[in-house]
Design a protein that fits this description.
mainly beta; 2,3-Dihydroxybiphenyl 1,2-Dioxygenase, domain 1; 3-stranded antiparallel beta sheet
Length: about 80
């Protein structure tokens, strides 16, 4: 999927996604995304154990939603539904 704000490819079961404007949003390194069946429930569950939202749920097209958080040790956790 290629859009002005997003480029994505899939290799096997691995999604590879690039946001051409990511650096302006503080994205300075590649981050992994965990596939979840309900992103809102996963986001809430992680917040309940101390994770802080970096980017709230965002529709990236193609019926895909993403979000990212920092865990309690400042590691980035990406979610994709």
């Amino acid at each position: 999927m290629d859009l002005p704000y997003y480029v994505g490819n899939q290799v096997g079961n691995q999604d590879i996604r690039l946001d051409p404007n990511g650096s302006s949003q503080g994205m300075i390194r590649p981050d992994g995304y965990y596939h979840v069946s309900d992103i809102k429930i996963a986001l809430q569950s992680l917040q309940e154990v101390g994770a802080q939202v970096i980017h709230d749920v965002k529709d990236i097209g193609g019926d895909k939603l993403i979000a990212s958080l920092n865990d309690t040790e400042d590691n980035v956790i990406g979610l994709i539904q």
